[in-house]
Write a structure and sequence with these properties.
This protein folds into 4 domains: about 160 residues, conserved putative lor/sdh protein from methanococcus maripaludis s2 fold; about 90 residues, Efflux pump adaptor protein, beta barrel domain (Elongation Factor Tu (Ef-tu), domain 3), CATH 2.40.30; about 55 residues, RNA polymerase II/Efflux pump adaptor protein, barrel-sandwich hybrid domain (OB fold (Dihydrolipoamide Acetyltransferase, E2P), Beta Barrel); about 60 residues, Helix Hairpins (Orthogonal Bundle). The chain contains 8 helices and 22 strands. The strands form 4 sheets. It has a 6-stranded mixed beta sheet with strand order 16-17-18-22-1-21, with no helix packed on it.
Length: about 425
């Protein structure tokens, strides 16, 4: 009896309890969350290589106007923003000494002219000699030179425009003493603009004359214009390791002198190549990859790869012994397609898709497109939105399909939609 009792205990209590082999799967194997994504097809297009720098818009014709002589500002005829033509008077200065000197010189010329006329009359009557008349004519010539100099000095009290343009700055006021110590006006020609960009020495051989350039306002990307490389400096600045590239602005009306711009010089372009949106790229350990939209693996192959234990966990609702008869793979939620259609008849069936991680080889890359040299083919769909946290083989659903949440929703919520 004592021996039989021991055998009975071993038979009833020494082994695992019924159903305990499924316990690891009873801890709650949940369906993998579905990530809502957006995708586009690979296509052929063009992509450009861009060199980017920053610079300031300048006018080809710009002048700081400094009074040639000191004087009190008596009148202002032009102000900031006014258009002027060459020779227009911008301001008049008052210098009493210069005015008096010019008047005195003019009076001296008039007096000598009268004396010369009288001397010529006396010479005709033989009252004076020829030498006396020549002396008076010499004095008259000297007086005329002095008068012109005095008039010129007095005229320098007028500040005039050296070329046609726009008054960019006025730094004098009526009643103020204007001197040559500081500019009184600044004139620029807004119709002739340029941008001088400093580029790294390594790009010296890649920049050439007449290359297209895009100029974008540093503070408003909607303000932009185009230009071309018009001049290249023949030397490299050894202190900064850069060279100067001058860009002629094609449409000056979009920009103003002094404005900060981003300079984008197109140094290369590939046409008719395989491209994907740049935002589709993800760098993992320094390697560029994309996530392709693909169909899930066949059910029988996936079941065989998962193993017997996973088959039992996936088919938990069908019974404990399912994995022993053969691997069974059920769609998300632990029921077959037919059962899912019966239970969730309120929502149409959504195509099952997965994200496949695909390393790619890149060519040229610009702000919008990336050239693909290897890894993709025409028509392959790559994910552009929602791929930042995807894994290889992760379940996905296309945005806009029936039952899809918005891209802002938590992707984990999708996993509850069996």
């Amino acid at each position: 009896m004592r021996t039989l009792g021991f055998v009975f205990l071993v038979a009833c209590g020494g082994g695992p309890r019924g159903g305990e082999r499924d316990k690891p799967h009873d801890k709650g194997d949940k369906p993998e969350p579905v990530t809502v994504v957006e995708a586009v097809s690979c296509q052929r297009g063009s992509v450009a290589e861009i060199l980017t720098s920053s610079a300031v818009v300048e006018s080809e014709a710009s002048a700081d106007l400094v009074p040639e002589t000191s004087g009190v500002v008596r009148e202002l005829r032009k102000d900031e923003g006014d258009r002027v033509e060459k020779g227009d008077v911008l301001a008049i200065l008052d210098n009493v000494a210069l005015g008096t000197g010019a008047a005195r010189a003019s009076a001296e010329v008039s007096r000598l002219e009268q004396q010369v006329e009288e001397a010529k009359g006396l010479l005709s009557r033989g009252a004076i000699s020829v030498r006396e008349v020549e002396d008076l004519e010499h004095q008259l010539s000297t007086a005329r030179l002095s008068s012109r100099e005095a008039s010129s000095s007095y005229g320098s009290t007028r500040i005039t425009a050296p070329f046609a343009g726009v008054v960019a700055m006025r730094d004098v006021h009526v009643g103020e003493l204007a001197t040559s110590a500081k500019p009184a006006f600044k004139i620029v020609d807004p119709e002739q603009l340029r941008v001088v960009a400093s580029l790294p020495e390594r790009d010296l051989g890649r920049v050439a004359l007449d290359q297209p350039v895009r100029l974008i306002s540093a503070y408003d990307e909607e303000i932009w214009t185009t230009g071309t490389v018009s001049r290249l400096s023949p030397v490299v600045d050894s202190s900064s390791g850069t060279f100067r590239a001058t860009v002629a602005v094609s449409e000056p009306g979009q920009l103003r002198p002094g404005q900060f711009v981003s300079v984008q010089i197109e140094v290369d372009r590939h046409e008719g190549v395989l491209v994907v949106p740049k935002r589709a790229l993800v760098y993992q350990d320094g390697v560029p990859v994309v996530f392709r939209v693909t169909d899930p693996p066949p059910e029988d192959e996936e079941g065989e790869g998962e193993g017997e234990g996973e088959g039992e966990g996936e088919g938990e609702g069908e019974g404990e012994g399912e994995g022993e008869d053969g691997p069974s793979w059920w769609p998300f939620g632990g029921r077959s397609d037919e059962d899912a259609d019966d239970v969730s008849g309120e929502e149409p069936e959504v195509q099952r898709l997965v994200a496949t991680r695909t390393p790619v080889t890149l060519g040229l890359v610009d702000d919008t497109w990336a050239e693909i040299l290897d890894g993709l083919s025409i028509g392959d769909k790559v994910i552009t939105v929602g791929h930042s946290h995807l894994r290889d083989g992760g379940r996905i659903r296309m945005a806009g399909e029936p039952g899809s949440a918005s891209l802002e929703d938590d992707p984990a919520d999708e996993g509850d939609e069996g």
